[in-house]
Amino acid sequence: MPYRILAISLGGTIAMTSGARGGLTPSLAADSLFGQLSLPGDLASVETWTALTVASPSLTIPQIVSVAFEIRKRLASGFDGVVLVQGTDTLEETAFILDCLLDDQAPVIVTGAMRGARSSSADGPANIEAAIRVACDPQSRGRGTLVVFDDEIHAARYVRKVHTISVSPFRSWGRGPMGRIVDGKVRYCWRNERLPSIAVASAEAGRPVALLKFALGQDDRILRALPDLGYRGAVIEGAGGGHLAEAMMPAVRELAGAMPVVFASRCPLGPVLRSTYAYAGSEIDLLDSGALHAGDFCGIKARLLLTLLLMAFDDAAAVRAAFRHRADLSLAN
Fold this sequence. Notes:
Blueprint: E1 3-11, E2 16-18, E3 24-26, H1 30-34, E4 44-54, H2 61-76, E5 81-85, H3 91-101, E6 108-111, H4 124-136, E7 145-149, E8 152-155, E9 159-161, E10 170-172, E11 179-182, E12 185-188, E13 209-213, H5 221-225, E14 233-238, H6 249-258, E15 261-265, H7 283-288, E16 292-293, H8 299-312, H9 316-332
Parallel strand pairs: 1-4, 1-5, 5-6, 6-7, 13-14, 14-15, 15-16
Antiparallel strand pairs: 2-3, 7-8, 8-11, 9-10, 11-12
């Protein structure tokens, strides 16, 4: 009996054709993207849903939370798995949000394309077919949300887009792919422990978290402005192991008393430190100031995690405790 797969489109390059100005714009619905697959007929029964038709930089966190709610409902109605397509620019962020919110055993696979749907070398169809194969494989159950691209399988927690035009633009920093498709078969290399799901009750907006990157000579004016701008939290990508300038620390201490503040690293590889350096602006100083350690989350994903926790809890202490718990778990598995 074929697997029942829910196929969702949010738009992106995979759904783009040439527009009036000559460049690519989103235009195709899910039916067009999933209607001409060359998979065996007994593998999957695909039902489509065009949720959005936008370029991925215009997606919002509440929109993805709403999609997660709908996925949960449809999985409960009998679907065996989900394949979602969108633009690659924010694909890793959508995958991470879904991974944080969904605790089903059924596979949720996110994919896309680097070339438009009408390109002579369009990569979308192959990525969709690979994603459906992964969604239908029993080994994929219980692994959380996965990104499938160019026959590689990545865990949502680690995957990053690292190239602007390559047809293989994703890497899992520090881990390598979780698996691959070889000779049309799914092969997994390792499994990571899933983190606890987050019980967000509503997709309402209004929990903005700032993401800032430290650079040489940067001052504290943006940090001091965040509360008046309506931000509810902040993530700072520090230099090296997560370090800031000494002159910024009074503002960090003040901000950490008013809202959750997380420090991560702007480096693509290596851990955020906890106890190596003790100078002003070091990781020890940041922890003493009340800032939260990002665990093994990059700045982008630490911001998403903090945003979802702010949507789930009204109490700032509960948000800080939940973030610490997940950050500690991320380092342990």
